[in-house]
Amino acid sequence: MIITYRDWHEMLSFALHTYRSVVRTSTGTTLYSLVYGMEGVMPLKVKIPSLRVFIDSELEKAKWAKVRYEQLNLISEKRIALIFHHQLYQKRMAKAYDTNVRPRFFQERDLMLKEILPLPEEDQRKWALNYKALYVVKKDFSGGALRLSKMDGEDLAIPVNSDSVKRNYV
Fold first, then answer.
1. What letter does residue 41 receive in the DSSP assignment?
2. What does pLDDT average to in each consecutive run of 10 residues of the chain (170 residues)?
3. CA angle 104-107-113, nearest 5°?
4. What is the pLDDT of residue 90?
5. Are strands 145-150 and 131-140 parallel, antiparallel or unpaired?
6. Which one-letter DSSP state was computed for residue 137?
């Protein structure tokens, strides 16, 4: 048989099987084991029989129960290992993200433009204003919040996230 691009539908089940049984970097486990709590049993690698196989092969009931109990204990260990792996993965991703982030520092009396956040009902046109009038930084908090005041000295009621302002160079 010659495999051509027209035979893709015949290979789809093999591709899906491979996709579901390959270990993911982000979780350290397969999709199948996340859904069912155990690794998928390949037809050639039947190690721990299910109840149906047990009945067909007439294994001892005590031996089957012991093997099943050990298998259930392994599930909780796998979940703990998965949580630990996920935490390490999150740290790696955060480190990779933080290498590209440039911190923004603000000082008191810096001039800022505050972003206009339109309401969902408002008409958002292409040429509408994106920023409001000038504001002055009154205080810079450590978490990225800013206390702003208007040019006439009136303070804004609530702090503003530093992501919603941009520096004005007059």
1. P
2. 71 80 82 79 52 60 74 78 88 91 81 78 74 83 84 85 81
3. 70
4. 92
5. antiparallel
6. E
The CA-CA-CA angle for residues 119, 125, 129, to 5°, reads: 75
Q: Name the token pair of 96.
A: 């990779």
The single-letter code of the amino acid at 85 is H
> Which phi and psi (to 5°) does residue 146 adopt?
-125, 140
Residue with tokens 């486990």: 29
DSSP 8-state secondary structure symbol assigned to residue 164: G
Q: Which residue has the tokens 């005590």?
A: 62
Query: Are the CB atoms for 23 and 85 separated by under 8 Å?
Result: no
DSSP readout, 142-156? Answer: TTSEEEEEETTSPBP
Whole-number pLDDT of residue 45: 42
| Residue 132 amino acid letter | K
Residues 6+ apart with CB under 8 A from 112: 106, 134, 135, 136, 137, 146, 148, 165, 166, 167, 168
